[in-house]
Design goal:
The protein is mostly helical. The protein has six helices and no strands. Helix 5 packs antiparallel against helix 6.
Length: 108
Amino acid sequence: MLFDFYEKLLTEKQQTFLKYYFHDDYSLGEIAAEFDISRQAVYEHVKRAETVLESYEGKLQLLAKHEATARMLAQLEELVEQVVTQKELSMELHKLTQSFRAHIQGVT
């Protein structure tokens, strides 16, 4: 998932190796053969790219924010199915609105 959020911030080589390795399920050996480099070199490129992705997430928190938003949306959908009365709906929507507002303020 980190790759999906931060792909464009990686070098072209990092993007290519990670796509081959994670998306296309190539082995390190297959990537090495494709690019005529050692398996160890591919491993180092992949590990370095993973470190970069984790660093971006540590600073920007885009994945964490996305997951929090998805959880709130799931809660909203669950409430819509569960709420019986207008008053209950109003109270629950108010709580969710406050949570979402706090989340958005934390994002900016």
